[in-house]
Amino acid sequence: MTILTFTLAIFGTSILAGLLGALTGLGGGVVVVPVLALLFHVDLRYAIGASLVSVIATSSGAAAAYVREGFSNIRIGMFLEIATTLGALVGAYLTAMVSTKAIGIVFGIVLLYSAIASFRSNHEDVAPQHTGGLADRLRLKGEYPSESGLKAYVAQRVPAGFGIMFLAGGLSGLLGIGSGAVKVLAMDQAMRLPFKVSTTTSNFMIGVTAAASAGVYISRGYIVPSLAMPVMLGVLGGSLIGSRILIRARVSTLRMLFAVVIVALGVEMIYSSLTGKL
Amino acid sequence: MTEPMKKHAPTAEQDQRLEGAIAMLLRIGVICAAVLVSIGGVLVLRHPEAPVPNYRVFRAPGEPSAAISPHTSVRSIVAVFRHLPHGSGAGIIALGLLVLIATPIARVIFAIIGFARERDTLYTVISLVVLAILAVSLMHGR
Predict the structure, then answer these.
(1) Burial of A211 by CB count in 10 Å (0-12 exposed, 13-18 middle, 19+ buried)?
(2) Which value does ipTM take for this structure?
(3) Which residue of A has its CA nearest to B32?
């Protein structure tokens, strides 16, 4: 294999990973890392480095569209970014201290969890409740456009959401992924924010969270130009195509199919780690 | 801007303007990064017959100040800029990656300016804390 065919193969695979990541709502990173490791036998640390870069690209690329639509909440996002960036720093440090085997197993578990989470139904949006606590003092509230006009919301259970966000940041730093599924868990389930607000604000936060790991990754030597190049361009392109498809098509059947792919990747990741093949 | 009423309750209009500016910034950052990485990629692939480097094994990274080459790790931000005048493909890819990493950081700086102009002290401070955490990470990679 020459460098050209190798680069093209990685590029093509990354487009598919980005497409899959966008259509499942999981993000490209969580797909591209196991593919690089299992299919191309790239060392997990190089795979994580390339993925992290692609995660920043897709988050920033998609956020531009979401911010304009008025769904994402920059105040809630910024406040929770304190938790995710701190978590990311801790996670990025941990990559050098734990074995690739352990990283692979954690990765597999996150894949399995993400597959299940992508099926979670869109809960009923709660009416604004006044908590009188942290949410009020931090003004963690807003309005979002719904079918029946602007709807108001207030964040609930702020400390729980903050704690889960720290975990999301840690996983992002450890695995080189956006960990959007865990971020959505924090906002949608713990803080009871409207689903649309949760997913778009999560996407908005992913770039900043990943940037917090980037400096540590560079110092560790996880980022290689000729590998990061096709992965970043591919995942970015794939996710842009994916988000176009999402607007036009109903994807419930596709989702089912993709969830099976994600579960298979998760199982394979855990198996390969346990048998020392990673 | 100096009316006391707006001091604690930034208008939706102000918020929207800030959000619009942030959206524009993110888009420009990603496009610049993608263009730089593509140009660098074409330069690196000028010798398409070259063998595939070994990514199966993680090699202990070299000196942080070493020249940027396609198949070895970027070790420091300073090195990327120092070796940029050589105009190597790998150097341009690395620059594109740094532009990409800088984009969300610039977003935080933008938000700090925006919140400060809205006289939203609480969120100016919150954004500054996020920036400080990002700075700690970047100091590692400098």
Answers:
(1) buried
(2) 0.90
(3) A57
Task: Tell me the nearest-neighbour CA distance from B118 into chain A, angstroms.
Answer: 13
Within chain B, strands assigned E span none
Q: Does pLDDT of A2 surpass 50?
A: yes
Domain spans in chain A, listed from the N-terminal domain onward: 3-274
8 A C-beta contact, residue A164 and residue A186: yes
DSSP letter for each residue of A192-250: ---HHHHHHHHHHHHHHHHHHHHHHHHHHT---HHHHHHHHHHHHHHHHHHHHHHHHS-
Q: Kindly report the number of other CB atoms within 10 A of residue A249's CB atom.
A: 11
Other C-beta atoms closer than 10 Å to the C-beta of A119 total: 11
- The beta-carbon neighbor of A227 closest among B49, B55, B89 is B55
Q: Does A134 touch chain B (CB under 8 A)?
A: no
Nearest residue of chain A to residue B102 (CA atoms): A211
CA atoms within 13 A on the CB side of A46: 28
Is pLDDT at A3 greater than 50 in this prediction?
Answer: yes
